[in-house]
Task: structure prediction
Amino acid sequence: MSGNESRVQAISQIVNRKLMPAQPPKRLEDMWATDVFNLSKMQASLPKSIFKSVKNTVQTGQKLDPSVADVVAVAMKDWAVSKGALYYAHVFYPLTNGTAEKHDGFISVQGDGSVISEFAGKVLVQGEPDGSSFPNGGIRSTAAARGYTAWDVTSPAYVMETDNGMTLCIPTVFISWTGEALDKKTPLLRSIAAMNKAATRVLKLLGNTEVAPVNSSCGAEQEYFLIDSNFANSRPDLMLAGRTLFGKPPAKGQQFDDHYFGAIPERVQVFMQEVEERMYRLGIPAKTRHNEVAPGQFEIAPFFESANVASDHQQLTMTILRNTAKKHGFMCLLHEKPFAGINGSGKHVNWSVGNATQGNLLDPGDTPHSNVQFLVFCGAVIRGVHKYGPLLRAVVATASNDHRLGANEAPPAIISVYLGSQLEDIFEQITKGGIQGSQGRGIMNLGVETLPTFIKDAGDRNRTSPFAFTGNRFEFRAVGSGQSVSGPLVAMNTILADSLDWVANKLESDLAKGTELNAAIQTVLKEVMDDHGAVVFGGNGYSEEWHKMAAERGLANLRTTADALTVLKAGYIEDLFEKTGVLTPVELESRYDVYAEQYLLAIEVEAKLVGSMAKTMIYPAAVRYLAELSGTISKLKEIGIELEKESAEKVATLVKSMMDTASKLSAALSKHDFATTEDHMQYASQTIRPLMDEVRQYADALEGEVADDLWPLPTYQEMLFIK
Ligand code: ADP
Ligand code: MG
Result:
């Protein structure tokens, strides 16, 4: 096929496609968690004492009694086998943002040649996948190559239906033989433990006698694009890089905002219904769905859950979106910026902390008592975000997210906190020392006279802030759509743990000096605002003024991943992770190495694709058109008609510029001698990327000149508007 024949064929296939039949509607109760081995299924199948022991581990994080594993394993296997599973898999989360699993059969061959299905406690609890192909930043390259997976009892096992049938999936951590975390779950669990410890200290100092374990919660809003696979499969860039490296913006983009909250097209509706059913069966509480701003863009958000389970569920959600899309003839794009000039995709991570006794600690409530508690926790967040803002930037730093952050559709790379006018006012009063506290009848009371009763959602919305308070939680909006939420959750939990420890130390020493509790709290809050109030910003985060003001306030603006990742090497970040016990220096360094390597790899793959697509797809189309055009011009000249030559000259010039730049790009890619990884990243960001953009600029201009029937790539218009 030449020229646009493949495009024409794709369009006719799409237009004549038979819709996947919509599933008959099912009752939620008939779908909910049918594929999950949750507490209620354990209760039904386990002896009472064993069930109590497992439940204790799940709910309070206490160590699992090893003797129960065998009994649980048998019950789990029997349940999975009854659902049709022949295999089990330890599922783990390597540093790549992906999900990995190794499948093993339940089959056990007996002496007489017969087989039984078998699953012992020790294989439930521990596995040894051949994980040597996962990036580990050098942790395992030297001595032992072994990596182990270990059962995370706090995240329920489930059966997953794939083309290979049903598999029992067991969420696990992935650690090296030397005990270092090779995955994203281990530090998440450690960060929750660190935050719990510090939060408990503070809650006790605030006078609470009974304090249940404090956990963090997460609700992640996932944005994504759906593109018909007939188009996606004829675009090497979408297939290999997940984004278009070429493509002229369509005459009609998203200017009319007519997609946002518009009716969901029927075909997408059928797709979403299947996604939701699969999520419900896996116990993932899908809650909202709607169109997003860009054409072809959608969002799905679950009801929030505990951070660890939410993080596993988020990984599953990405897998389900991708696999279900394939079934429906779509490609699901989770890239942060699949189309230049069109809004990209993010993942808003809603995050809070709380427990069973004090409730949501970031809920202002409406009593003075909980207001005090709230102000202390909210103040601790403000301090953390200010002190460790660059870390929050670093954990969302990827080659793909660089296209989105700061592009007037997503928050800037400057990390600030939005509180809403009501809270901003209260914290300003604190700075001025205006709120007077006094201890009143049993209930703690921080200036009831001056402290207004909070009205939930009183604050307006500010979509330009990267870190916004939204009524009873913070919403971290700089996270990329394709990212695991674990890194951001680890960062938020860890900086909060650090801040709460600082608060607890202050309060303890003030109380020891005989200061009254309310006065001590006010002093702490005032110090937080004096030292860290600069991070609070309620204005337009997209504006030029903010960039200037932020610089004056000393807030970092780390524009690229190359700038941001080096934060992981800073001494104060190493100290933070070491003293909270979340990551050892070796583990932190390995993360820097892996993320830097992934950044370089992503840019290298894209740069090579830019070169090859320019040369083998765009150049041939342009010279064919040029031949046609110049042939016609000279033929007409023979019969005395002068056709203007400008258009041929323009095409020729663009072709030459494109190919010259592509050669420069290819030469630039052959440089490999870099003193440090930082240098290499800066080179990728400052030299390779601009050359790629330049090649694209010429190619996109050619798309506007070359005859449409010769153009080899599905256009933006086709991909975004034909459904
Ligand atoms: P919006 O688009 O207005 O931000 P959505 O309803 O799409 O709101 O998403 C809000 C997300 O925040 C949901 O996933 C919701 O469950 C979650 N959320 C609500 N309360 C909390 C909380 N206390 N902790 C964590 N997430 C929360
Ligand atoms: Mg949101």
